[in-house]
Specification:
By secondary structure, the protein is α+β, with helices and mostly antiparallel strands. It is 46% helix and 14% strand. It has a 4-stranded mixed beta sheet, covered by helices on one side. Strands 1-3-2 form a 3-stranded antiparallel beta sheet. A two-stranded antiparallel ribbon has the order 4-9. The longest helix is centred in the last third of the chain and has 27 residues.
Length: 415
């Protein structure tokens, strides 16, 4: 192979000191070099661009098969030409190269683990907990962090700071947000500037991903009754429908818009919590542009405006003894609580309002508070609330919802 000539290259493209180092190596092919000596030659020629590791890589790429490199942990790499392998070898300590080899090995293993646990982002998790937040992280990285400081581990498992670091590394490696980052972004969905700042550090997902999550959840909730928190009546209890007027007046610089429609909600007192295996399909960019299908089919009313009460519902039936007894106990209890509240207002200072007073009574007597009710907001009916077609549409749609939950009758409340 011909010797390297500086004249063959332009100084503006190639490091001149590197070419001169190539010439020194070419002049004595019998010598056994180590990376420290090659670095000294490079620096003597005025080289400053390359580190010792990158300098060795340049030498190997220049001479290709004519040169051999011997690597060993803790010592400098030996570089020699093939015709001088039998010469005396010189060994120089270089712990930084051993560290570089170790770091490369760890980085490669961590990247392989993250690649193995990576999943396609086609859906969102409804729940997030410690095990699900740890699924996308590297076990080797968690072990490495536990050696850095004991606070990176908790009860022989990764601590929350360790999980956060693992999610950041997994997000950068996979080039997609993790479930934990999406959950943190959704918690701060009202603060766009904060999300954008934290996204730069990969603590949360991007604000665009938060908007996609909210849009995907809205579309799925419109299709799936269970996702809205409602469940079968045999488990969750009675399902009720409430309708009322929805009035709004919007003023702008050029017009006034009056809104007089019918609002409708569906409630259930003891809903079943959504299981962890429920997911929300992730919308594509094209699907994000499509409107959410919330229109309800209008059911026209063909009967009289003031129908008579059906005979079977106008009969006065005597309630059962059990029902009368339960009603009596409930009334007596309510009168007692009302009397205690009024007495407290008159005789004690700083008495809480009525709801707070009842809450205090429950805590003092050891009563368990009632569980939260599930509430599903139905689409507005853009019709006059007093119109028979509007009321009939609300009744038919409400009956369809309760029948999906295996409830035979519709209980509807309106003012």
């Amino acid at each position: 192979k011909p010797a390297v000539s500086i004249d063959d290259y332009s100084d503006s493209v190639v490091d001149t000191a590197l070419l001169q180092t190539f010439e020194v190596l070419e002049q004595d092919r019998t010598k056994v070099w180590n990376t420290v000596e090659i670095m000294d030659v490079y620096e003597q020629k005025g080289g400053t661009r390359l580190s010792r590791r990158t300098l060795v890589e340049e030498v190997e790429s220049q001479f290709v098969d004519d040169i051999l490199s011997f690597h060993s942990p803790g010592i400098a790499t030996l570089v020699l030409f093939r015709n001088s392998v039998a010469n005396t070898l010189k060994i120089v300590n270089a712990e930084d190269e051993d560290e570089e080899v170790t770091l490369k090995k760890l980085g490669k293993e961590i990247a392989q683990e993250l690649k193995a646990v990576k999943r396609e982002l086609t859906s969102y998790d409804v729940h997030i907990d410690k095990p699900s937040a740890t699924e996308c992280t590297s076990n080797l990285l968690n072990k490495l962090l536990s050696k850095v400081h004991p606070k990176f581990t908790s009860d022989s498992s990764p601590s929350l700071p360790s999980i956060m670091v693992g999610n950041i590394v997994a997000s950068v490696t996979a080039n997609q947000p993790t479930p934990l980052q999406i959950a943190l972004g959704v918690l701060m969905s009202e603060h766009k500037s904060v999300i954008n700042m934290l996204y730069k550090f990969r603590i949360t997902c991007s604000y665009d991903e938060v908007r996609r999550f909210l849009r995907s959840a809205a579309v799925q909730a419109a299709r799936d009754t269970a996702l809205a928190g409602l469940t079968d009546v045999s488990v969750g209890g009675l399902v009720q429908v409430i309708i009322d007027n929805f009035d709004a007046v919007i003023h702008s610089q050029n017009c006034r818009l009056d809104c007089h429609n019918l609002a409708m909600i569906v409630t259930q007192p003891r809903p079943t919590p959504i299981t962890h295996d429920v997911t929300i399909p992730r919308l594509s960019k094209e699907q994000m542009k499509e409107p959410i299908d919330l229109d309800q089919t209008v059911v026209r009313y063909r009967g009289p405006k003031k129908p008579d009460m059906p005979v079977q519902f106008s009969l006065n039936l005597k309630p059962s003894d059990e029902l009368e007894q339960a009603v009596g106990i409930s009334l007596n209890r309510a009168r007692e609580l009302d009397f205690n509240f009024l007495s407290s207002v008159l005789q004690e200072a700083n008495t809480p309002e009525y709801n707070g007073f009842n809450t205090r009574i429950c805590r003092e007597t050891g009563m368990m508070p009632a569980s939260k009710s599930a509430v599903r907001y139905m689409p507005l009916l853009y019709m006059k609330p007093a119109d028979p077609d509007t009321v009939n549409t609300a009744i038919v749609n409400g009956l369809r919802i309760v029948q999906e939950l295996n409830q035979e009758y519709l209980v509807i409340t309106a003012d």
